[in-house]
Amino acid sequence: MTIAVTGATGFVGQALLDRAAQAGIGVRALTRRPQEPRPGVEWVTGDLDAEAALSQLVTGAEAVIHVAGVVNAPDPAGFEHGNVTGTLNVIEAALAAGVPRLVCVSSLSAREPDLSAYGASKARAERLVMASGLDWTVVRPPAIYGPRDTEMFELFKLARWGVLPMPPREGRSSLLHVDDLARLLLALVPGEEGVSQRVFEPDDGKRGGWSHYELARAVGWAMGRRPWVLHLSRRSLERAARADRAVRGNKAKLTPDRVGYMAHPDWVVSHAASPPRSLWEPEIPTREGLKATACWYRDHHWI
């Protein structure tokens, strides 16, 4: 089997390549920059705008796992181009090459497209996938963490100092380790009965998700600290986003767009949308996963 993967050099994509190698699955992977040789991986140079590269990527593949996407952009046009146009280009390449199967990584934010430009772009991308005529499955992960992650990494850095700013107290969210997500994506490739034309929302198995306070304390525990959890109002988050933009410019992690969904109280997966237990279940308990992630950050001198 050969699968085509977009976003292979990113956080989720790297975990997916690791899992594919363990399973003996050949991967053709899209990359914008030269990569070191990797057993079982054929690198294809290009991006989501490169028609010839996408054609080379998908031709002869049994399925496409579309991971690539834009999570941070200075304006809505950046999300539209990266998430909507990029997804359309992948769909058109798959159709032209006769690839029957598409597994698309979306986001829980697609449930609430009015809250952020990011969520709106993911919702539009989902609609393209559903109308594509391909045998598709959409996966909406919650907050993902694990080695190589640069998003939740900010929480680990802050936890060192004993104070952890978090969104409003009433909010809750689900979590998922990146390796568990990678296992799910590969399990969905065959497109067995019960997974085609479905939208799945996987998580770590904790019903009701994690409160922001619980998550902060769990990250603190992973770092060997007991941080003071400081819950910020939406207005405070907006001020912090402006400050982050002033300091880091387009590299800011906390943006006004992110504030829209950070302040939303419910990012818990719907268990009615859980993947079939016969196909997949989470294996990594979150507290242990957070601890191992903190160790990875230390071992690789990120913190």
Description:
- This protein is of the alpha/beta class and 303 residues long.
- It has a domain at 2-142 and 177-204 and 270-282: 3-Layer(aba) Sandwich (Rossmann fold), CATH 3.40.50.
- It has helices at 11-23, 51-58, 76-97, 117-130, 153-159, 178-187, 212-222, 234-248, 256-262, 286-299, and strands spanning 2-6, 26-31, 41-45, 63-66, 101-105, 135-139, 143-145, 163-166, 172-173, 175-177, 198-200, 210-211, 228-231, 266-267.
- The chain has a 7-stranded parallel beta sheet with strand order 3-2-1-4-5-6-11, sandwiched between helices. It has a 3-stranded mixed beta sheet with strand order 12-9-14. A two-stranded parallel ribbon has the order 7-10.
- Helix 3 runs parallel beside helix 4.
- The radius of gyration is 19 Å and the shape is globular.
- The mean pLDDT is 93.
Helix content: 25-40%
| Radius of gyration of CA atoms, rounded to a whole number | 19 Å
State which percent range the strand residues make up: 15-25%
Strand order of the largest sheet: 3-2-1-4-5-6-11
Number of H/I helices: 10
> Remind me, CATH topology of the domain at 2-142 and 177-204 and 270-282?
Rossmann fold
**Topology pattern, helix = H, strand = E:** EHEEHEHEHEEHEEEHEEHEHHEH
CATH level-1 class of the domain at 2-142 and 177-204 and 270-282:
Alpha Beta
Main beta sheet, described? 7 strands, parallel
User: Could you tell me how far the N terminus lies from the C terminus, measured between alpha carbons in angstroms?
Assistant: 39 Å
How many beta strands in the DSSP annotation? 14
Based on secondary structure, the structural category is: alpha/beta
Question: What is the CATH architecture annotation of the domain at 2-142 and 177-204 and 270-282?
Answer: 3-Layer(aba) Sandwich
